[in-house]
Amino acid sequence: MDVPAFLAILPANGYSSEDSTLLQKAITLAAPHLALQKRLSGESIFQHNLRVAEILCDLHADAETLAASLLHGLAPEEYLSVERELGVSVIALLKGLDGLKELKFKNNKLSAEALRKIILTTVSDVRIITIKLANKIDNLSTLGVFPENEQRRIASEVLDIYAPLAYRLGLEKLRVRLEDAAFKMINPRKYKEIQDFLEDSREQREQLIEESITLINSIAEQKIPIVKIKGRSKHIYSIYRKMTGRGVKLNEQYDLLGIRVIVPTEKDCYTLLGLLHEKLEPVEERLKDYIANPKPNLYRSIHTAVLLPNGRNLEIQIRTPEMDEFAEEGLAAHWRYKGLKSDQIFEKKMAWLKSILELQKTTENKEFLETIKVDLFGDTIYCYTPKGDIKELPRGAVLLDFAYTIHEEVGNHAVGGRVNGIFVPLKHPLASGDVIDILTNKNQRPRRSWIKIVTSPKSRQKIRKELKTTEHLSPFHFRQIKPAATEEQGILVQAPKHPTAQCELAQCCRALPGEEIIGIATKRRIISVHRRDCRLAAKEEKRWLPVQWKETFNQRIRFVIQAQERSGLLADMLHTIASAGFEVKEAKAKLLDENLVECSFVIIPRSLEQIQELIGRLRKVRGWKKIYFA
Prior knowledge:
six-stranded mixed β-sheet, Ubiquitin-like (UB roll), single chain
């Protein structure tokens, strides 16, 4: 990459003539000084900077970021000229990069203070760390000049620190390049093995991608416009992690590729999902709606997996052009359109980093490093509150960890909870997709045994903080009120003699939320709930018990719709459910006969009013016959 070639790629990447002028000035300032300074590889610093700027150009970073990357390494005494020509913002970026030059190491590993400095720099201006990430990518390509142990140290640092940071910031392109380049240095034999396998199977994968694209186009034909369909192979390091994490051999992996479908609108995303699930069998537990509930790094998309006619699983991502742009470019997409300072998305992304900085003020270096390792670089799971808010936790987290992610006081007073509607203790392990409702008691207080229960260092720190306070209190404050070990039901029994009774909807009349209902005590010691006008219930009037629908719901609920079979039915239903404000946790459809189809859905309603509104909307779907709750 030389200067003319770099300037030539700017217009194609959306940079204006004003941007080009700014960058030409940066080159004029940088070249005379940096072209004469050599790196260990023998090339000039300026040549290295040009390649870094090219990486950032592909990311569509703003012109000031590119200018700073071109000038990085310039002596501070030249900064006055830079400020005069390019402004204070570029100088601020250069000074931020200077602050990351001499990071302290301990036993060949980044120290707690070095990590704190990286995080603090990211919070102050995320563009600084973005330049640093691009710089690391180019550095990895020239590591051959270093001793082997130094190569491994640098590559491990990239894999452990910088690649996860890129993921957290939504910089997917940078993350993939960092991971693959670092992995190649750390384990060249395994890297080549996977690379050779991908090359040997390339024609087969390309054919499968082509067939899958044709199939999706035929399913969507005349029903929904498709902006673009992209087939992709998973990158080498992600394949390696699946091999080691799942214990699967390379030739046994059947999900090495995925299809990304770009459609015009959010509504089209749900319509296409419905069409795909209508024509192809969905794979269990693989539907993830990150549109309704974005990931903590604000990634949005619908993920699903379907069974192809050839028996293979196919992973499919469905998103709009805006979602795709953000997934690929992260914050860079927002720099162009909204401006960094006022961007609420930027603020949300920085919140987790700020929380880590706060934690560092009250913990020892060892615990701070443990927190960084788990929160920033560890495997994660995603769980939901009853309202659908997503919470990110380290893999292996328990119910008590979840309680502390909601609020410190919720954790301190937690006595148990419901996971997917089932009552569980504080030490219950969690899994991705769990819907969790925490039960609290004002008399509950943390115990020392809790420190061994939780997985998250943040939870541990909050427990220790509260213990320091409560250990000075009278023993009177530690009396416990035993929580009722019963699951709160979707129906609230008013009979005083049956406050914890289990309730079930009777299959004879299948009452819908909002309808008048009564309860009948059965020999199985449960309360069977009927519509008040149920003929069978009328015969048992002497055994009636008063029951009523809850006003709020906080567990998964499955309901079933029977409807006349027609093309697009499932898509219409999915769109209706999504437009009513629900995230669909599960969707299935099966033919009862040639004219009748049964669709079942799992949702998490927030209130009786919301579910009544949904029922009303579903009754307007063309062809519906019957709605009931399973």
